């Protein structure tokens, strides 16, 4: 008989989760907004914490732990047999907007190897999890970037009440944490607050915040496809799609989600004008979305300060400079696009931005905030692009 690894489960704040605990049979919130007393869909009272952990355990145990041992072998760069796994810890990390991710802490012959198990309980999450798994696989193959997590396998588990739960196993970004705009108690100014469970919450400095917006824009630009005009969309600061790590005071950013990969442009002609037009739509949408968040992740929709525009544009040009050359252009693409952007007037950019905003679901709480701030946003954008000192030099 094979020796099976010990599996233990932990709730938020590292509290053990056991069948004898009262919470085991309590309904699990289907999103972070459920804490505010708003049911999200019909599954609110049909899934318990026990169902969640049982689904995670059953998924990991399926086919005699085959997916897990294959994944650990990749991560450890050597063959890992089932008997070498000493312990598996399932840590519920958060009740997210779409998934309830667990950190899977495995111990293999004394070596800790963390993974993430994304678990979809809500209808929205279940509908999207298979699609996202395939998108992540595709983007990790198509682009030479390492900002998205690797993914290893997915499947469905049915609870005792025959309720389907979607899951996929992926790379865990160790030491990276969620962040959101918060109001600093000292001056009530909007400041980025990092949720670090080990060292406590940390407010970023102004320079660190600039780095954050710049890197987020660079990452999204890196995954923009110049052939098809496709981009990672939707993404959202409010959903915690980006995570960060502080290294010697500097920001390192990763993108943990890619729920969609679409083009906002119907014209797929690949001539110089079409390429530049599509890039402009991408940039405008990028600068708008970059400014949206929710206070502390669950509060009202909030609009970031003006410097986010400058740093988003800087990050965009940094990402553009990393793209392979396009033979259709005589000069580097970032240089060509800067010249193209300079010809657009403030009114023309506002009209185009308004068209982009009108593509959003009118029922989204983001839309009134975007419309309220759009004119001023375009003014700030034009100040940046018309600044005589503005340069695509990525070293500035």
Verbal overview:
The protein has 396 residues and is α+β, with helices and mostly antiparallel strands. It has 2 domains: 6-171, Phosphorylase Kinase, domain 1 (2-Layer Sandwich), CATH 3.30.200; 179-386, no CATH class. The chain is built from 8 helices and 15 strands. The chain has helices at residues 49-76, 123-142, 206-222, 272-289, 307-321, 333-342, 346-357, 366-386; strands spanning 6-10, 85-92, 102-108, 111-120, 151-158, 164-171, 179-183, 190-194, 202-203, 230-232, 242-247, 250-255, 261-263, 292-294, 301-303. The strands form 5 sheets. The chain has a 6-stranded mixed beta sheet. It has a 3-stranded antiparallel beta sheet with strand order 7-8-9, with no helix packed on it. A hairpin with a 6-residue loop joins strand 14 (292-294) and strand 15 (301-303). It is globular, with a radius of gyration of 22 Å.
Shape: globular
Helix content: 25-40%
Query: Strands of the largest sheet, in order across it?
Result: 1-2-3-4-6-5
Oligomer: single chain
Q: Uncertain segments of ≥5 residues (pLDDT<50)?
A: 34-44
Q: What is the radius of gyration computed over CA atoms, rounded to a whole number of angstroms?
A: 22 Å
Query: Total domains, how many?
Result: 2
| Number of helices in the DSSP assignment | 8
The description of the largest β-sheet is: 6 strands, mixed
- Estimated structural class: alpha+beta
Calculate the mean pLDDT score and round it.
89
The total count of strands amounts to 15
The H/E string reads EHEEEHEEEEEHEEEEHEEHHHH
How much of the sequence lies in strands comes to 15-25%
User: What is the terminal separation in angstroms?
Assistant: 63 Å
